[in-house]
Task: inverse folding
């Protein structure tokens, strides 16, 4: 008896169209609006996220901006492998936002957060970031 091939799933299946939801340890949820809208991620160093607090029903739009000097530092550190249009920056901005809401148990003031300094985790991930736009294992 021949094995039956697995039926391929459509790229439009609900599991593939749901946006990533990052849940912090204290209950904040961070969403990527471009995934909800089905558009490409931003490549400008400015990333707008939707954040839901466990303390209130509504969500807020938070702008995370990566400083030019930080981008330049990572470009040099990665020997040009990570540039501003890399998905590395989406993950970096999201990680800084998650750290902020976890440590402060609140939204950033005025709905803005600036990434103007790299953390050891940023440098570690930059070292392992592959050319395919994800972490190397």
Result:
């Amino acid at each position: 008896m021949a094995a039956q091939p697995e039926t391929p799933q459509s790229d439009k299946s609900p599991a593939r169209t749901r946006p990533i939801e990052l849940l912090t340890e204290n209950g904040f949820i961070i969403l990527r609006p471009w995934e909800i809208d089905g558009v490409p991620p931003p490549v400008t160093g400015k990333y707008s996220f939707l954040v839901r607090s466990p303390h209130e029903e509504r969500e807020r739009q938070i702008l995370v901006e990566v400083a030019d000097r930080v981008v330049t530092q990572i470009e040099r550190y990665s020997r040009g492998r990570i540039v501003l249009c890399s998905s590395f920056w989406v993950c970096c901005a999201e990680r800084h936002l998650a750290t902020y809401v976890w440590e402060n148990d609140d939204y950033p003031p005025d709905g803005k957060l600036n990434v103007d300094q790299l953390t050891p985790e940023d440098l570690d991930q930059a070292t392992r970031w592959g050319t395919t736009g994800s972490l190397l294992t």
In short: The chain has one domain: 19-128. Residues 1-15 have pLDDT under 50 and may be disordered. The CA atoms of residues 33 and 39 lie 9 Å apart. The chain has five helices and five strands.
